Amino acid sequence: MQEKNLEKEGAADIWQEGIHYLLEETAAVVQETCEELEGEVKIPDEVQGLPVKRISPYAFARKRVEELHLPGCLEEVGRYVFYRCFALRRLCFTDSWKEIGAGVFTGCRLSELEIDFYRGERSCLKFIVDEVRYEICVTMRYHREDGQVETAKVLFPEHYEEAVENTPARIVETHRHGSGGYYRQCFYNRELNYAEYDSLLPWAAAGENEVVTAKIAVLRLRFPYRLSGAAKEKYEAWLVEHIEDAGRFYALAEDTETLRFFGRNGYWTREAIEQAIDAVSVEKKTEVLSVLLEERRRYFPKKKKIFEL
């Protein structure tokens, strides 16, 4: 779309790559987006030299955007910005985002978040996962002053609440389903409390199926940011006990990095790897099959026969 400038009440309007910006004195504001906006969208850090700091209410409502990268200087997102963005699955932003309006993700089914931290460990993550009741995987990259980057990945399971009438008592009771509600409470002063998060493994094991709990355990073990030794032992004990379910899931998902991670850390059993091989053989997933066969050769080699004369 060609850029268009208009002078309006001392500020300039500009359309750029399907996004309408209002250029104020010290910042640019996302006002609205064109109907054709879809797929992967990146909002620039600056528009005509002005930092993009705000997104106005309903700016992306009903658009077919699937992946959105927000600017690194964004501070405020207005109410219902992503209202009924049914296609939106992935959102990337930084810890500069401080204010979040009501109903921002109404009608969305986000499944992935990526956050880059430059100013500590505070973010608006809690407000987002509180709004999104579905399962959501979060990648957090902590950028240190010495240039090092530490990465954490966690899963917030799906949860929902159900109002059930207790007729004899004439009251309405709230029934909570899934462990996701407990995981969404693991925040203090806008920071994720990893120790509290890790303490909820028994709740996940009791309230979720083996696949969901495996994802929680595997992400914490593969990206052990602030993972205590005691918590690591509990995750490993659970994973070893359920390695057949976990191995089959990650094999069918063709996640070869996790499959090799199982091997390097001694989580595989012969039975588990055989079941994973059978599963991908049926589905004709040849690439991951070759990885599993190599893993089997490496960790469970056939014993050579010895012939005595």
UniProtKB/TrEMBL annotation:
Source species, domain of life: Bacteria
Pfam families: LRR_5
Protein name, UniProt field: Leucine-rich repeat domain-containing protein
InterPro entries with a match to the protein in the record: LRR_5, LRR_dom_sf
